[in-house]
TrEMBL record:
Subunit structure as annotated in this protein's UniProt entry: The complex is composed of two ATP-binding proteins (PotA), two transmembrane proteins (PotB and PotC) and a solute-binding protein (PotD).
PANTHER family in UniProt: SPERMIDINE/PUTRESCINE IMPORT ATP-BINDING PROTEIN POTA, SPERMIDINE_PUTRESCINE IMPORT ATP-BINDING PROTEIN POTA
Cited InterPro entries: AAA+_ATPase, ABC_SmlMolc_Importer, ABC_transporter-like_ATP-bd, ABC_transporter-like_CS, Mo/tungstate-bd_C_term_dom, P-loop_NTPase, PotA-like, PotA_ATP-bd
Protein name: Spermidine/putrescine import ATP-binding protein PotA
Enzyme class, first EC level, given as a word: translocase
Residue intervals of the ABC transporter domain: 6-238
NCBIfam families in alphabetical order: potA
GO molecular function terms listed in the Swiss-Prot or TrEMBL record: ABC-type putrescine transporter activity; ATP binding; ATP hydrolysis activity
GO cellular component terms, semicolon-separated: ATP-binding cassette (ABC) transporter complex
Protein's gene: potA
Family: Belongs to the ABC transporter superfamily. Spermidine/putrescine importer (TC 3.A.1.11.1) family.
Signal peptide: none
Record keywords: ATP-binding, Cell membrane, Membrane, Nucleotide-binding, Translocase, Transport
Catalytic activity line of the entry: ATP + H2O + polyamine-[polyamine-binding protein]Side 1 = ADP + phosphate + polyamineSide 2 + [polyamine-binding protein]Side 1
Length: 382
């Protein structure tokens, strides 16, 4: 049985009366023992949200709960959370043991207990042989492990990590992703991880909150968010996407560039303008005759495990293709895909905007006027 540990109810944060909110009406729940990621670009509000959990920033409006108790007025040092910062915030004049033991000494624990807890924390991060090492003699990855050990030695219920991998090189960052995920599963405590790196979030998380302009625009498992982005921002921000204008002719039937394709999405208005998302890895190169869509190759780059090909169709739409097959610049190729590879996104628009878009599609002859006039009024309003 799952148990809630953190809850935000209608939380808003404004740093002064005249400013726009940096967090807008945040509502979320986090369960005990899971790895959560706050994912967004710089300025999206993710670090502000993290610091509100830690108690470093107060909410302007709304309530924050931890273990079902309102903690808006609980000071940071009284909350059962610890934070690992981007710069690690280690004490350079102390060695590894002294850095990890610092919080325990403030609690005035007996020396034997401190030694035991520090030894266990260093073992968990594979630094048991570095106890006497000076901080200035450690690599970036080792310093990060010390910061994590210093946080977990206090046995927090929640560990907050504010972009702790951003200063590491690519190889070390990948290694630390595995180590952090394994550590979270071994400890069984709640991790809340802040990053702007989409691949990092997808690889490590049980649940992702995608943030933009102070709002949570989508939340879900990594697979849900990657396969079913809710809008253009998420589709464009999470991984690589081909986002093409289309028309939902009917349930499970979408039109792209005047051609109709089977899809797996339904429940939309007939002839509703939509955006169609197809991931580059879901496109299969075939002959021009066998292709569902025909494109002309513009350029390609070798990415190690695949070629990244940029091509354009007759309507001028750009297509990115990830394939193990090499293509020649200027070559005309066919692309094929399965119905489940087509993901449909609705436009967030009013009825007036919808009507205007329909009119535009009729003028551009994307939709025959006879089909529009045949739509019952209730469906047009739907």
């Amino acid at each position: 049985m799952t148990q809630e540990i953190i809850r935000f109810e209608n939380v808003l944060k404004r740093f002064d009366d005249a400013s726009d909110p940096v967090l807008k009406n945040i509502n979320l729940e986090m369960e005990r023992g899971k790895f959560y990621t706050l994912l967004g670009a710089s300025g999206s509000g993710k670090s502000t949200l993290l610091r509100m959990i830690a108690g470093f920033i107060e909410a302007t409006e709304g309530d924050i709960y931890l273990n079902d108790k309102r903690i808006n007025d609980v000071p940071a040092n009284k909350r059962p959370v610890n934070t690992v910062f981007q710069d690690y915030a280690l004490f350079p004049h102390m060695n590894v043991f002294e850095n990890v033991a610092f919080g325990l000494k403030l609690k005035k624990l007996p020396k034997p207990e401190i030694e035991k807890k520090v030894a266990e924390a260093l073992r968990m991060v594979h630094l048991e042989k570095f106890s006497d090492r000076e901080i200035t003699r450690l690599s970036g990855g080792q310093r990060q492990r010390v910061a994590i050990a210093r946080a977990i030695v206090n046995e927090p219920e929640v560990l907050l990590l504010d972009e702790p991998l951003s200063a590491l090189d690519l190889k070390l960052r990948t290694e630390m992703q595995y180590e952090l995920r394994e550590l979270q599963q071994r400890l069984g405590i709640t991790f809340v991880f802040v990053t702007h790196d989409q691949e990092e979030a997808l690889a490590m998380s049980d649940w992702i909150f995608v943030m933009n302009d102070g709002e949570i625009v989508q939340s879900g498992t990594p697979v849900d968010i990657y396969d079913e982005p809710i809008n253009h921002f998420v589709a464009d921000f999470i991984g690589e996407s081909n986002i093409i204008a289309g028309v939902m002719i009917d349930d499970y039937l979408v039109e792209i560039n005047g051609k109709r394709f089977e899809a797996v999405d339904g429940g939309m208005r007939k002839n509703e303008p939509v955006e169609v998302v197809i991931r580059p890895e879901d496109l299969v190169i075939t002959t021009e005759e066998k292709g569902k869509i025909t494109v002309k190759v513009d350029s390609q780059l070798f990415r190690g495990v695949h070629y990244e090909i940029i091509a354009y169709d007759e309507e001028g739409n750009e297509w990115m293709i990830h394939s193990t097959r090499k293509a020649a610049e200027g070559e005309t190729i066919g692309l094929t895909f399965e119905p489940e590879d087509i993901h449909i996104m609705r436009f967030n628009e009013t009825e007036e905007e919808f009507d205007a878009r329909i009119e535009e599609y009729v003028e551009e002859e994307v939709i025959p006027e006879s089909e529009v006039t045949a739509i019952p009024p209730d469906e047009m309003e739907g």
